[in-house]
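Memo to structure team: turn this sequence into structure tokens by end of day. - J.P.
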Amino acid sequence: MGDLKSASHHPAFGGISGWPEDDHAAAFRAYLRTCQAGVLDELPAGSLLRDAACALSPKIGPAAARAFFEEHFTPQGHAATDPPGFVTAYYEPELRGSRTKSAHFPVPIYGRPDDLVTTIGETERARYNGSVTGFRRMADGDVPYHTRAEIEAGALARRGLELLYTDDPVDFYFMQVQGSGLVHLDDGSSVRLTYAGKNGHPYTSIARVLVERNALRREEIGMETVKAWLKADDERGREVMQRNESYVFFHELPKDQARDGPLGADGVVLTPGRSLAVDPTYIPLGSPVFVTVPGLAGEDGRIFRRLMIAQDVGSAIGGPRRGDLFIGTGEAAGALAGQVRHEARFHVLAPKR
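Reply from structure team:
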């Protein structure tokens, strides 16, 4: 497997600006979570990459981690003359909730209905976002599953699907967009909810709806400004949110799973600042991806250049040069995530044969 005690200097990585300065040990710890979730099990039996990754300690240092990536991967990036890619960011929101419906907690959070039939795999959501992929089996044939408006009007009521109740429909909407949430209950406990499926209707960006209606200018768009606009008038906000017919269902994580953080695709625990949502049609899940965002500064004030791991997907994350950076949990992470809309370049690290 080579000497992992000191960083090697493979020429293939010489063209990646910022590669030597990154914290490769932090990236390796995120990569190891992919290994622990079994994603690398899809590699052939006896695969050197799988065996090497899963055998190493998460406590290896930056030099050894860098050597691991340089020895087992080859960077593949689009040419400098190609159009740049684009990154946004996402986070895990925190909500208030209760296990009992009341005037203070009227908004239901539903688990996945047993009559929902989807025609695609969950990791293919971006690829088929323009089509209806969720149905109900009826005697005279399949019909599209209930839309957001129909569900909010009571289409799933009294079926025992309510996991929790929350107090704010706008905050709940954004939890659906993000795909997970940490809910602080009125009894003092907290539960972590994770994505369990969607109704199969195409995802529509309500930010784009607001711009098209001239309700907000494009340069004003950000998570906080959109939230404020929706909350300023309940009826107006509900109508706009229902323009997005997609509706996400959740699953409550057991406590032993919930303590480490939110889950991405394939059950991988997400790592703030190191997990990346991608379109797996183009970037396989589990791939290390070096992301360069010239217009975004990292914690050190320098240009964001970082090795991340493809560990999640999203309906709006489509194409070979599109990524969504996972920032973390809570209000501060959400404020930062809402500001990320930048051109970017990606170097995907492909396993050596």
